[in-house]
């Protein structure tokens, strides 16, 4: 579990440093970030199970696959004019991006090139 937390901290730091945001990482923030990661992965797995018959369809008028739409909706809940962090949580932007950059499913859905910010070589996975 220590390796998972270190990888997650690196993911969070890399996203924050790219945006010039300075947040203090703490055990409480780590716990919330881990919950975001696990929750997003579990939600995606449940989503994939329920939409299996529509998996390869694009949605009319959106030019998006159902997988892409899942990830867009994941981040929509974090949209606001105020992008600042509210303790004990990371910023809304980090809460959107960090779980996704650690999911192979996201990289595959959007065709992210290997070793790019949204498809790093080292991902925080543990199941």
Describe this structure in words.
The chain is mainly alpha-helical and 127 residues long. A two-stranded antiparallel sheet has the order 1-2. The chain has 5 helices and 2 strands. The chain has one domain. The chain has helices at 2-18, 27-50, 66-76, 92-101, 104-110, and strands at residues 58-59, 64-65. It comes from Rhipicephalus microplus. This is Peptidase M13 C-terminal domain-containing protein. It holds the Pfam family Peptidase_M13. One of its GO terms (molecular function) is metalloendopeptidase activity.
Largest sheet: 2 strands, antiparallel
Give the strand order of the largest sheet, numbering strands 1, 2, ... along the chain: 1-2
Backbone structural class = mainly alpha
Shape: globular
Mean pLDDT across the residues is 77
- The helix fraction, in percent, is 40-55%
Low-confidence stretches: 18-22
Give a brief outline of the structure.
One of its GO terms (cellular component) is plasma membrane. By secondary structure, the protein is mainly alpha-helical.
Protein topology:
Blueprint: H1 2-18, H2 27-50, E1 58-59, E2 64-65, H3 66-76, H4 92-101, H5 104-110
Antiparallel strand pairs: 1-2
Helix pairs in contact: 1-4, 2-4, 3-4
Keywords:
Peptidase_M13_C; mainly alpha; Peptidase_M13; 127 residues; metalloendopeptidase activity; two-stranded antiparallel sheet; Peptidase M13 C-terminal domain-containing protein; MetalloPept_cat_dom_sf
